[in-house]
Every structure is written in structure tokens, then in C-alpha cells.
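Sorry to interrupt, but I need a hand with the structure work. Please put the record directly below this note.
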Amino acid sequence: MSENSNRRSPLQARSNETVRTILDATSRLLAAQPFEQITTSRIATEADLSVGALYRFYNDKQEIFDAIAVRELAEFRERIAARVKLRRLVFSPRKSLDGILDSYIEFLEERPHFRVLALGRHISDRTREGQSNPETGPGGILQDLLVKNVGIKPGKTLQLRIRLAAEVGDRLIAYAYSQPTMKEREQVLGELKEMLAKYLLRL
């Protein structure tokens, strides 16, 4: 290994650690404070950094919010992929579709900071576009299930359906969380499952 490589390694490690510190600090603020009160100055204070140090990594708070969303969705994809792999031997299209939605709700419950971003539509259009792409985003797992296990023909039509289902799903999940009681929330989520099954599985 060259001297330059040796020099870069600790610098890269420190940079990665600083990025994690910024994202973790912002996540704590999202879970504890009103969204409108979160500023780059507050994030820097929470991360024990100067504002100037924060700006060396992110141009503004929107970039930080997007980075959190990308990180969380990557973890969600890994979780779903692992669960799908375990259940392939007893595959049921409807149960699998319901399971993906249930897993996403569970994920939102575990991560209130991500729930604020996702349900409040505080993720930029550019990042949402990248994450909703069936080839690269969470929809890719669903597309794989529908093609390999349900026999739905792959292509542009299926990709459009998955993206539309994701858009409708996001809005109805947010609507479900706005309900005054848990019973009413569950009713909305139940109707969402029926809608998605009829639309994606033609059941």
C-alpha cells in the first residue's frame, strides 16, 4: 500500500464517522422536535460540530434529510429481502404483499425520525424519484416477487404500476397516521391492502 493510501484511509474513516454523526444527530432532532424548528445550526450543535464543519459535508439541511432517507430505505430493503428469502418456500402473493406493507409500518414505528420525513413528504423529489425506481428502490423487491412468483410480465407497465402503488401507498399511510384512533388507522391500512391487491395482483 502506498504512503498516499495510508494517509487517505484514516481521513476517509474520519469523514465517514463525521457523516454518521451528522445523520444520527439530525435523526435525534427529527424524533424530538417540531420539524420546522430544525436548522443547520441546531444540527451542528447536536452533532458537536461547527456550522462550517457541517457545510463541508452537506450544502443544506435538505441534503441531510435526503441522506437519512436513503440510509433508512437501504436498511428496509435489506430487511425485506431477508424476510422474502426465508418465506419463498411457502409463497402466497397476497400474504407477501400484505407482509411488505406490514413490515414498512413496523419500520416507521421503530424509526420516528424517518416517519417524520416520509409521511411529511420532506424528502426531495429527486431523492424520491431515485428511491421509487423499481429497478433500484424498494419497489424492486416487489417487482421481483410479482415476476418470479406471480407470473406477471415484467416491463414498463409493471414498473408504472409499482410506482403508482408506492405513491398511493405513501399518501394513504400518512392519512392512516392522521386518524384519531388506532382502530381507524387499522381500517385505513386494511383498505390500502385491498386496493393494492386488486391493483397489483388483480385479485
